[in-house]
Every structure is written in C-alpha cells, then in structure tokens.
Amino acid sequence: MPIKYLRWLFISSYKGHTLFGLLISLLFFQNPFAIALVILGANFSDFDHDFKRENVFILIIIGLILTFLMYVFKLPYYIGLVLILLGLIFLLSSHRGFTHSLLGIIVLSLIVSVIIISGINFIIYFSLFANYINFKFALAIMIILISLFALNKRITPIFLALFILSLFAFPFNSINYFLIFGSVFLGFLSHIILDSFSPSGIKLFSPFSEKKVYKKFGIIMTIILIIFSIPNLMNLINYFFNIV
Fold first, then answer.
1. DSSP labels, 98-163
2. CA distance 44 to 39
3. CA angle, 88 as apex, 82 and 93 as ends, to 5°?
4. Distance between CA 235 and CA 239 in Å, rounded?
5. pTM higher than 0.85, yes or no?
6. Using one digit for the tens of pLDDT, what is the confidence trace for 38-81?
7. How far, in Å, CA of 87 to CA of 165, rounded?
8. What's residue 43's pLDDT?
9. Which of 89-103, 119-133, 150-164 has the lowest mean pLDDT?
10. CA distances from 10 to 20, 65, 107 (A)
11. Given this model, what pLDDT does residue 50 score?
12. Which tens digit of pLDDT belongs to each residue from 191-207?
C-alpha cells in the first residue's frame, strides 16, 4: 500500500478521521447502524473550525425555525432548542478546545444522541406513513440526513452507498438508545485520539485545564480500546468458525 494512503491514519483530516473511525467501529460492532454512527461522530468535532462556520449557522437557523414552528403548533419544541445549543457550542468553542476535551465529547455525544432519538420519534409519530415506519427505518433516515450535513461532500456518496448496501447485505443486531449514544461517543473519542497524534495535541481536560496531551495519550487509548474489543473479536472469530 502506498505511503500516502497509510498517512491517512495519522493526519487530522476528514479522510483520516473517517477511516480511523471506521477501523475503531469494526473492533466493536458488526451492526451497520452502529458503524455509521461512529463514523458520523468521528466527523462532528471539527465543526468548531472556521471552515465549518457556515454549517454551524445553518444548524442554528434550522433550530430557530423548528423551535418557532413547533411552539406555534404546540408540539415538543425542545429538539429545536437542542439544535441551537449544539450550534452555539461549536460557534463559541475555539478549535480543539472544549469540543475536543473529555467533557466536551460526553456533552456532544449526549446532544447528538438526543437529536437522533428525537428525530426518530418525530419521523415515526408524525409521518404520513407512520404505520409502515419502524425504529430502524427511522434511524436509517436520520443517519442519511445527518451524513448529508456532517460529512465532507467527497465521502458522502461513498458513505451513503455502503451504508444502504450494508442494510440489505448484512444481518444486524438490535439497536437501542444506549447503543446509539455509545456509538456516537466512540466516534467522538476516535476523533480526539487521532488529533492527539498531531503536533498541536489536544486540551483533554478543557475547560478545567489548558494542559495538552499528545501521541502518548493516543497510543494508550488505542491499546485500551483494542483490549476492550477482544471479547467481541473472539465472538466474531467463533461465529465464523461455526459457520465454516
């Protein structure tokens, strides 16, 4: 494999974060939904960067519109407020500040999970075709919508094609609220792990401390994730041996 492709694993770019998020997700999941959510989470943290400002403003505007419309029609308008909150966090955060800290990725994972779950409930209960839409179908719609907003345009078509094909090609386990949060969090975690390998490092304990951590943190966390994934990998190996 050419060196330039190997470098994707060690550079902080949308390609590197997407690929690293995919590799980390495969250590723990064979569920297409969970894998897709990890990849989305891995691409969210850089919304604190200047080149993502337009997306952040769009997010806030959508939140304001949803809040107003749902309030007028006496619907739960908290989803609009949550979108506004998410946008404000990215807007007010310095690059690789709070959004790249341990507390930051926990908060962001909770907010993104609430948005996803609220969107699922909205699709199910307010759709004209509610009788034909189940939890997994609504989740697939949310993943597609978020990918159009969160992912780089160059990888979005590839992501969508592989995600949709995987839903038909592979059996998947049940999905629930805890798995949604865990997958999104793992994606955010993979992002800060990869960023720790960069010369500028990350402020892991922001806003309580400005001290930065570097590649030593990334190496330790990668090893820990691999260790925790061993039971899942062993089950996967046993599964393949049983069907051969």
1. GGGSHHHHHHHHHHHHHHHHHHHHHHHHH-TTGGG--HHHHHHHHHHHHHHHHS-TTTHHHHHHHH
2. 9
3. 130
4. 6
5. yes
6. 999 999 988 988 878 899 999 999 999 999 999 998 888 898 99
7. 31
8. 94
9. 119-133
10. 9, 39, 26
11. 83
12. 999 999 988 899 999 99
Q: Dihedral, CA atoms, 89, 215, 35, 50, nearest 10 degrees? A: 30
d(CA 220, CA 236): 24
Chain-centroid distance of CA 118 in Å reads 16
Q: Position 49: which residue type?
A: H
Is the pLDDT confidence value at 2 over 50?
no
One-letter amino acid for residue 72 of the chain? V
Q: Taking the CA of residue 107 as centre, how many other CA atoms within 13 Å lie in the half-sphere pointing to its CB?
A: 17
* CA distance linking residue 68 with residue 84, whole number of Å: 12
Q: By CB neighbour count within 10 A (0-12 exposed, 13-18 middle, 19+ buried), where does 170 fall?
A: exposed
DSSP 73: T
